[in-house]
Amino acid sequence: MKKVLALVLAVVLCMGLGVVAFADATYDGKKFTAKGTDDIVVYVETAKDYDEEDLKATFDWEDGKEYFDDVDIEKTSANWYKVTVSFKGYYGTDDLDVDFDLGLKDGGRKADIKNANDGVPNVLNVADKMVHVVATFGWDKAHVSGDPDDSEVEIAGDAVIFDPDAKVTYTYFEFDAAEELTVEGKMSKQDAVNMYLDTAVTDEIKALMKKNEDVDFDVINFKGAPEFDFTQTVTYAIADEDVEYFVYEIVDGKPVAVKAKLNDDKDALVWKTRTLGTYIVTDDEIKAAADETETDDKENPETGSADFVNVAVALGAVSLVAAGAVALKK
Question: What is the 3-state secondary structure (H, E, C) of 124-148?
Answer without folding.
Answer: CEEECCEEEEEEEEECCEECCCCCC
